[in-house]
Amino acid sequence: MAEYDGMKVPSHVAIIMDGNGRWAKKRGRPRSFGHAQGCTVVEQTVRDAADLGIDYLTVYAFSTENWKRSEEEVSALMRLFRIYIKKLLKVALEKNVKVVMIGERSRFAPDLIAGLNELEEKTRDNTRMTFVIAINYGSRDEIRRAMTRMAEDVKRGLVQPEAVSEELISSYLDTAGLPDPDLLIRTSGELRLSNFLLWQLAYTELYVTDVLWPDFNKDELIRAIRAYNGRERRFGGVVS
Ligand code: FPP
Fold first, then answer.
1. Quick check: is 147 in a domain?
2. Ligand 1 neighbours by CB, cut-off 6 Å
3. Tens digit of pLDDT for each residue in 147-178?
4. Which of 45, 124, 158, 203 counts the highest number of beta carbons within 10 A?
């Protein structure tokens, strides 16, 4: 765990980036304007997190429920992803950041899938920070897909029912090999998990700020880390 300004920097920070729509509405602009600013903030947050010594940064970029938004908004988000995949590749190469995706990418257009694959492949050997993008991600869908694969392995005799441990379940999830988040930040004030990392957040400290995602910045990230440092970490009753 790194230190910054006398504070312990949590190894894994996860973020629910909420409030793009409200930010745009306050300015009398379309929701896509908020998403565009939100993307710029994602790019900057990757830099800030790497500079602060965070080891893993996970962001909720597009949920399985987000397909239900208007066609106009979904296609604006797809356009932005196409642009930002390229920008993120530059940032990741510059900052020695490895990018990985969780979620079910097969529903995206072929060129977008190719871009996401390229982002992972070209950053595979980077070591300073791992940036996890949850895209077409929903925790229940992740668990459903994991259970389907596990049931197949049981049927084929590769897994015995008695051998199903918490570690084994974790190894079937999209986040296999990644540590659980230490700190979850949710912007824009809502007190919900919104189907994000339900299994992985079991012991995570939660921090909710009223700041809208497009207004999030390094100072806000440091504020969240400061709040985290003020918490007593409890794992089943024992203060660690
Ligand atoms: C929540 O705001 C935001 C989203 C549904 C999309 C978040 C996506 C980004 C910020 C882009 C991520 C980009 C990359 C490149 C990883 P909202 O629309 O729910 O806002 P509202 O609650 O105010 O309506």
1. no
2. 17-22, 31, 35, 38-39, 42, 59, 61, 66, 81, 84, 133, 188, 213
3. 999 999 999 999 999 999 999 999 999 999 99
4. 45
Q: Is residue 238, in this structure, part of any structural domain at all?
A: no
Residue 205 φ/ψ, nearest 5 degrees: -75, 135
Q: At what angle do helices 31-52 and 71-95 cross, to 10 degrees?
A: 20
pLDDT of 61-101, one tens digit each? 999 999 999 999 999 999 999 999 999 999 999 999 999 99
Compute CA distances 126 → 64, 93, 95, 97, 99, whole Å: 29, 8, 9, 5, 8
Indicate which CATH number applies to the domain containing 217: 3.40.1180.10
Nearest CA to ligand 1 atom 24: 21
Q: Say if residue 11 is exposed, middle or buried (CB neighbours under 10 Å; 0-12, 13-18, 19+).
A: middle
| Prediction pTM value | 0.96
Q: Is residue 154 part of a domain?
A: no
d(CA 23, CA 100): 28
180 CA distance to ligand 1 middle (Å): 23
Residue 5 lies in a domain: no
- Ligand 1, closest atom to CA 63? 5
| Sign of the dihedral through C-alpha 74, 75, 80, 82 | positive
The range of the structural domain enclosing residue 126 comes to 10-138+180-228
Q: Is residue 105 within 8 Å of 133, Cβ to Cβ?
A: no
